[in-house]
């Protein structure tokens, strides 16, 4: 009689994903990894990919878009929350409002929502926004607000943001997004042409200027340019 090995539970696959990020990619960010350990990535990928939801790669989510590789999510999240000191007691959610541009599957928003008070996320493809909203509701995430629209204009009704995260590739950041950022706030985005971008963290300084730090190279799906906020 053949005895099949037991299917690996998603919990242990998730632990393995975290181990890899910490040990192989050397990203030691306990709070980000702790958050990622709580998010069921298999719920954000297509049905056909449930078994490879924890693989070390980006996966298609339809409409030509992808859910980012786990390490990329960890790295970007760390660039947003890494510098924020843990409060001595009470809530660990020091950042009040973070804007994500490019909801995609909703996975990055779910990870962020465990680390900040409110996540506002914009998606230009209505079908993806609708699906992400449904997934996030089903899983019980209450502090994520999804809206269909182009990130180019940000979310003026909810300004100012402590941080802005762009998960699509663009050559330059629209000025309006810097206007919607608090002084001292950070904007993290993959900057560069279609073929390759450099992960960049901008910090809005008191004198109105912007400081810029550059990290690794990545390839993201492109940011879609639109003529109006509705996309
Ligand atoms: N953060 C996502 C992955 C995003 S992929 C996740 O966790 O799954 C990038 C997303 O940005 C795509 O869904 C794409 O449709 C969206 N996008 C591209 N240009 C945009 C724009 N101008 N405004 C809002 N969303 C945009």
Task: Give the helix/strand layout.
Elements: H1 10-23, H2 30-38, E1 59-62, E2 65-67, H3 70-81, E3 95-101, H4 107-113, E4 116-123, H5 126-138, E5 144-148, E6 161-166, H6 175-179, E7 181-191, E8 197-204, E9 210-218
Parallel strand pairs: 3-4, 3-6, 4-5, 6-7
Antiparallel strand pairs: 1-2, 7-8, 8-9
The structure holds S-adenosyl-L-homocysteine.
Residues 65-68, 101-102, 104-105, 107-108, 122-125, 128, 150-152, 167-168, 221, 223-224, 226 line the site of S-adenosyl-L-homocysteine.
Subcellular location: Cytoplasm
Pfam families: PCMT
InterPro entries: PCMT, SAM-dependent_MTases_sf
Question: Can you offer a commentary on this structure?
Answer:
- The structure is a single chain.
- With 231 residues, the protein is an alpha/beta fold.
- It has a single domain (8-218), classed as 3-Layer(aba) Sandwich (Rossmann fold).
- It has helices spanning 10-23, 30-38, 70-81, 107-113, 126-138, 175-179; strands at residues 59-62, 65-67, 95-101, 116-123, 144-148, 161-166, 181-191, 197-204, 210-218.
- A seven-stranded mixed beta sheet has the order 5-4-3-6-7-8-9. A two-stranded antiparallel sheet has the order 1-2.
- Strand 4 (116-123), helix 5 (126-138) and strand 5 (144-148) form a beta-alpha-beta unit.
- The protein is globular, with a radius of gyration of 17 Å.
- Bound molecules: S-adenosyl-L-homocysteine.
Key traits:
two-stranded antiparallel sheet; alpha/beta; 231 residues; Rossmann fold; 6 helices
């Amino acid at each position: 009689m053949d005895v099949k090995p037991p299917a690996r539970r998603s919990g242990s696959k998730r632990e393995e994903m975290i181990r890899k990020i910490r040990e192989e990619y050397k990203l030691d960010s306990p709070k980000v990894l702790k958050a990622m350990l709580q998010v069921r990535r298999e719920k954000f990928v297509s049905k056909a990919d449930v078994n490879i939801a924890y693989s070390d790669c980006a996966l298609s989510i339809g409409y030509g878009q992808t859910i980012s590789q786990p390490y990329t999510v960890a790295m970007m999240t760390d660039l947003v929350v890494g510098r924020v000191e843990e409060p001595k007691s009470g809530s660990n959610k020091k950042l009040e409002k973070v804007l994500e541009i490019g909801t995609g599957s909703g996975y990055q928003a779910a990870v962020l929502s465990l680390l900040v008070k409110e996540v506002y996320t914009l998606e230009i493809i209505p079908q993806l926004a609708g699906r992400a909203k449904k997934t996030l509701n089903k899983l019980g995430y209450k502090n994520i607000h999804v809206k269909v629209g182009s990130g180019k204009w940000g979310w003026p009704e909810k300004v100012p943001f402590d941080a802005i995260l762009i998960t699509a590739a663009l050559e330059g950041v629209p000025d309006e997004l810097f206007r919607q950022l608090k002084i001292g706030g950070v904007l993290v985005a993959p900057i560069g042409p279609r073929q390759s971008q450099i992960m960049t963290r901008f910090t809005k300084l008191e004198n109105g200027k912007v400081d810029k730090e550059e990290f690794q190279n990545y390839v993201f799906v492109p940011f879609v340019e639109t003529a109006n906020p509705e996309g």
